[in-house]
Amino acid sequence: MTPPSARRGLLDQPGQHCSQHGDFSPDRRLRTPGEFRRVQETGRRFDLGTLTARALPRRGTPPLPGRLGLAISRRAGGAVQRNRIKRLVRDAFRRKAAAFDGLDIVFTARPEAAAHGQPQVDQLIDRLAQLVAGGVTPAPPRPPRRPHKGRGRADALAGGAA
């Protein structure tokens, strides 16, 4: 039986990736929580305005394809807005994929990103490509967070006076 997507004419041949969306195979995505954590904790941060990227060189022998991870929180908007942001970033990343070879990149978004169209996201991704062209080194280690001791946060801010 022919898959539904092939019947709609989205696949050139059965077994191929959807040509409408380009190649975004599993080797182009960050997939495990550990991969995301490693990039977010040790990756170099690039503030692009409404998007923030953390990039980290991939482990292994070159040339390795660049991998994309999207961590778009609910603060960026409802499900429709978050999925739109992800779709726009994925599309821009696909078109600039060669610029990110050898890197793992995780994007986060501010709520204002939902108002962007594809040209604005393309500009942000182009800017990131220029920034990483000179090479990316791991960020200096951040000091570990100290757990808050004592009473609740409101009491700590008030100086502990009861």
Number of helices: 5
Protein structure class: alpha+beta
Task: Name the CATH class of the domain at 23-132.
Answer: Alpha Beta
- Mass-distribution shape: globular
Percentage of helical residues?
25-40%
Please tally the β strands and state the result.
4
Task: Give a short overview.
The protein is 31% helix and 14% strand. The chain is built from five helices and four strands.
Can you describe what's shown?
This protein has helices spanning 4-7, 33-42, 79-95, 118-132, 153-157, and strands at residues 44-47, 51-57, 67-70, 103-109. The termini are far apart. The radius of gyration is 20 Å and the shape is globular. It is of the alpha+beta class and 162 residues long. Strand 1 and strand 2 form a beta hairpin. The longest helix is centred in the middle third of the chain and has 17 residues, at 79-95. The chain has a domain at 23-132: 2-Layer Sandwich (Ribosomal Protein S5, domain 2).
Please tag this protein with its features.
Ribosomal Protein S5, domain 2, 162 residues, single chain, alpha+beta
List the helices and strands and how they pair.
Layout: H1 4-7, H2 33-42, E1 44-47, E2 51-57, E3 67-70, H3 79-95, E4 103-109, H4 118-132, H5 153-157
Parallel strand pairs: 3-4
Antiparallel strand pairs: 1-2, 2-4
Helix pairs in contact: 3-4
